[in-house]
Here is the input.
Amino acid sequence: MPTFKYHAKSSTGNVVSGTLRAADRTEVIGRLREKDLVVLEVKKKSGDMLAGLKAATLIGGRSRRVARKDLVLMVRQLSTMISAGIPLLESLEVLQEQAEIPGLRNVLMDVSNAIRSGQDLSHALEQHPKVFSNIFVSLVRAGEASGQLDEILVRLAEYLEAAEKLKRDVRAAMTYPVVSLVLILTIASFLLIGIVPKFRSIFASLDIELPAITSFVLNTGEGLKAHWVVALGSLLALVGGLFLFRKTKTGAGAQDWVILHAPVFGGLFRKVALSRFARTFATLIRSGVPILEALEIVSATVGNRVISRVVDTAREHVRQGESLCEPLAKSKVFPPMVTKMVGIGEKSGALELLLEKIAEFYDDQVNAEVKSLTSLIEPLMIGFIGILVAGIVLAVFLPIFKLQEGLMGR
Here is the structure.
């Protein structure tokens, strides 16, 4: 029988910790609640976790990637069958038979076999971490503990759909400027390397002093044409260096800081991160996940290391029995509106409700900003292309105009 570590809060507000031997986490939570303790966190001891990891490696060897839309559909169908009174194992077998995606079929087969051998659904899902995230497993575990698995699965499907919609909105906002920038650089490179250098001999035969812009464009084009290997190698080295740097802890943190403070897009990414924080936290709390475990999952899934560090700090304050809103407010990362609403939610006992309001607010903000950025970026990109092409054309024609003026002066 495995051993679990727990942290809980007594009726006097004191944080108590200890260990219990039990069949699963559900039993531990139930025994702690019988003692009138508010469960903050329950975890297996490291030796038990290692054994579980080895078992997961053996059982989950046939796992495949499963698309988010297929996962959402599977969750909704499972919720419908369970609420209709169909046993869990039979529901999973039905889903396995009708699954058209081989990866999903193999995963459901492994999950069905694990349940048939006596495991809980959450433990069976935990053996496929590439398919079922921490929040997925934690919500299912909470549904098993509360006896409301069908309702929790509906909530989980709604969460996955909202997260996917948010991702689509951000991708839509970023696609146009990235594609436009690539086209601009391609056009400029073609003009500078393929067209502009051919005018050098023509201008030399005119025997006139070239304008500064013409000399600059000609020298740039000829330099790129003569040393394109060096230029391309330097660009690839720069991109590769940045890629390797962002793989380090310092680089990843610096990248996330820049993302939050970048002009134009920084505000959008900050709102996306705050929406993800609030929605994930609200879903976990509403589903009965202990608050310390919920904060740990939020930290891992928020998608920005700057905010993740703030959440980790807040988690340590909560572990010591302190307020959640204070460390969030001191960080200056979370807006005052968010920290005030979190504080009110803690005092009123409606934290999950206010977190959902925050998520809805920032979802609306993201949608509005995506539309605003799309309408703003298009004319900016067109203007940039116009200025770039006009500059190159002007550099080519200015010597001709200058020659014409000289001939007319004679």
Q: What stands out?
A: Strands lie at 3-9, 15-21, 38-44. Residues 159-410 form a domain with the Receptor-associated Protein fold (CATH 1.20.81.30). The two ends are 104 Å apart (CA to CA). The first strand starts at residue 3 and ends at 9.
